[in-house]
Design a protein that fits this description.
This protein is of the alpha/beta class and about 425 residues long. It has helices at about 25-35, 50-60, 85-90, 100-105, 125-135, 165-175, 190-205, 235-245, 265-270, 310-315, 340-345, 375-385, 395-400, 405-410, and strands spanning about 5-10, 15-20, 35-40, 40-45, 65-70, 70-75, 110-115, 140, 145-150, 160, 180-185, 205-210, 215-220, 225, 230, 250-255, 275-280, 280-285, 295-300, 325, 345-350, 355-360, 365-370, 390-395, 415-419. The protein has 2 domains: about 5-20 and about 235-419, Enolpyruvate transferase domain (UDP-n-acetylglucosamine1-carboxyvinyl-transferase, Chain), CATH 3.65.10.10; about 25-230, UDP-n-acetylglucosamine1-carboxyvinyl-transferase, Chain (Alpha-beta prism). It has 14 helices and 25 strands. The protein starts with 5 loop residues before the first strand and ends with a strand. Uridine-diphosphate-2(N-acetylglucosaminyl) butyric acid binds near residues 126, 166 and 330.
């Protein structure tokens, strides 16, 4: 909700156990995929977030039934009777572009506006549009509306991506799941959330091979049938809570997460001096020793270091002894949280794609804003590790991706309230 704020009293070491929420970036494409299924789809471990609620509003507008009961989302898509999504619903969520593939797969046509804003810099959709064209859709994207039609259904094709874009890979998988023939994606994104999407579609009767690799092969089927699916754990939420523990020199036991999902960033916490133990679906992190700097980290497509963890881990590194450097290669404008960290006493210089962090002894609470989802989470991490009170405004960005962040932090002994 607009105008809410998070107030954090920093300086308490976080300690305790949590079960990490379901993954936002897996639930969003899976909710979109559910509109292609006959019968009932039941998504367990579905995070209650403003982005998942926005997805439900899109489905409801299209004529589907959606019901959240705790973390179980039930979708019945048999009543779908529209194929256009109005501008105000498209703008609620940046990932709404994946409805293009899902609607083309289900109805053979769709009419959408361009997805919302550009908080991380330009976010073009050229690769999405080119892929749909290649599969035989006629695409008209004049005057702010994207009209796509494939009168006789989409056709399987070989599509080579110039860059392993997550959203484009998902859109092609959605569109190809019910297309005629075989689609091969070359240079596909390899993120674990894509593996979860493919696992869901396969359970519904789809035929997708190779998800998680650079080449994904999708054999189109004529029907998909709803199933019950458990959404994978959110690795970026896990990174956020581990960063908060590192920033406060605490300890945490995270349940319900396969540690291999976190390989791309756990090595950074290890370099920072955290002790990490992995056992039976749990990750234990002890960050009681003073943090050390980590040298250079480059954000890369999976399995490289994830851009979504950059801001969050930067907050913890602000107090790590020595110099750490980030190089952000995925999004043009993903250092908008830096000004707020500097306001809190951090020593950070941004030069082009690089952010150079010179560890300081202390951060101090300040009035700051959540500039975007992960930038907002970075403010929470910094506030917990700072001396005094931090007040974060514009927290609707945080609510897009974190289920009840203040409840989780409070359960770990952190002092945080929402006003
Ligand atoms: N790109 C293009 N043309 C396209 C599509 C993408 O040039 O048609 C560029 C983008 O501008 C960007 C790069 O390719 O520079 C990567 O974009 P990608 O398509 O991989 O990202 P996305 O699908 O828009 C998803 C996540 C993001 C995450 C990125 C990268 C979801 C809903 N979003 O976005 O998550 O940062 O992949 O891993 O899955 C977040 O959760 O905070 C978040 C922003």
């Amino acid at each position: 909700m607009k105008n809410q704020r998070l107030i954090i009293e920093g300086g308490n070491a976080l300690s305790g156990e949590i079960k990490v929420q379901g993954a936002k970036n897996s639930s969003l494409p899976i909710i979109a995929a559910s509109l292609m299924c006959k019968g009932e789809t039941v998504l367990k471990n579905c995070p209650c977030l403003t982005d998942t609620y926005a997805s439900c509003r899109i489905l409801t507008h299209l004529g589907c039934e959606c019901r959240f009961d705790g973390n179980t989302l039930t979708v019945k898509a048999d009543g779908l009777d529209k194929n256009e999504i109005p501008d105000e619903l498209m703008r609620e969520m940046r990932s709404s572009i994946i409805y293009m593939g899902a609607l083309l797969g289900r109805c053979g046509r769709c009419s959408l506006s361009f997805p919302g804003g550009c908080e991380l810099g330009p976010r073009p959709i050229d690769m999405h549009l080119n892929a749909m064209k290649k599969m035989g859709a006629k695409v008209n994207d004049e005057y702010g509306t994207i009209e796509c039609v494939s009168e006789h259904g989409l056709k399987g094709r070989k599509i080579t991506l110039k860059y392993p874009s997550v959203g484009t890979t998902e859109n092609i998988i959605l569109a190809a799941a019910k297309a005629k023939g075989e689609t091969t994606i070359i240079n596909a994104a390899r993120e674990p959330e894509i593996v979860d999407l493919a696992a869901f579609i396969n359970k519904c009767g789809g035929k997708i091979k190779g998800a998680g690799n650079s080449t994904v092969v999708i054999e189109g089927v004529s029907e998909l049938y709803g199933c019950t699916h458990y959404i994978m754990p959110d690795r970026i939420a896990a990174a956020t809570y581990i960063s908060a523990v590192a920033a406060t020199n605490g300890e945490i036991n995270i349940h319900g997460i396969d540690a291999s999902l976190c390989d791309s960033f756990m090595c950074v916490f290890e370099q920072m001096g955290c002790n990490i133990y992995v056992y039976d679906g749990c990750i234990y992190v002890n960050a009681k020793k003073p943090l050390k700097s980590v040298g250079k980290i480059i954000t890369l497509p999976h399995p490289g270091f994830p851009t979504d963890a950059q801001a969050i881990i930067m907050s913890a590194l602000c107090k790590a002894k020595g110099v750490s450097i980030f190089e952000e290669t995925i999004f043009e404008s993903r250092y908008r949280h830096v000004d707020s960290l500097v306001k809190m006493g951090a020593d950070i210089k941004v030069i082009g794609k690089a952010a150079i962090i010179n560890g300081v002894k202390k951060l101090y609470g300040a009035k700051v804003a959540a500039t975007d989802l992960r930038g907002g989470a970075a403010m929470v991490v910094a506030g917990l590790g700072a001396e005094g009170i931090t007040e974060i405004k514009d927290i609707e960005h945080i609510d897009r991706g974190y289920e009840n962040i203040e409840k989780v932090i409070t359960s770990l002994g952190g002092k945080i309230t929402r006003t």
